[in-house]
Amino acid sequence: MTIAASPATVAGGLPAIELDTPRLHMRCWRDEHRAPFAAMNADPEVMAFFPSVLSREASDASVDAWLGQFAAQGWSNWALARRDGGGFVGCVGLSVPRRALPFSPCVEIGWRLARAHWGQGFASEAAEAALAVGFETLKLAEIVSFTTLANQRSRAVMQRLGMRHCVDEDFEHPAVPEGDRLRPHCLYRLTQAAWRQRRPKPPPAAFS
What we know:
alpha+beta
């Protein structure tokens, strides 16, 4: 993985952190990302664990909010594209939840991928890179993730990342109406210390 400050600094803001993983470019948002992101957000299967699909206007508003975060702090949710020319994949990134949650303040890691790119390990690959930014570059003590209880696909990614399900901290998400099947959420945590313990150790140096 390589990490660099982007030459495409958001107007008036800080240089954006951008990443390359073995198979993905992780980039600050550009205009060419908007249409495929909106198409992804209009897919009912992609949005099955969200309250609804998003209109083009709502999708663009998310991009605009993330661009504001890149300008203010240099990091947010990254747009993903395949390095082999396979096009837009989705988004993965770090964010501070807008709403006060029972475990606030916190930094959350999250992901959303277009259906054509499911099942290929892209979410885990990009999330591993985002965790490295959070713990190595930003020096965060902990990163959390959460989703509705039924979202087994996202929960599997959290587990692959080494995150711990804090069963006693599962909660009702305040942005979801009471009684809605999506309101009960699970919380996963990963500390910097735990992340460092699970990272692959470099091989010992060879002596001649």
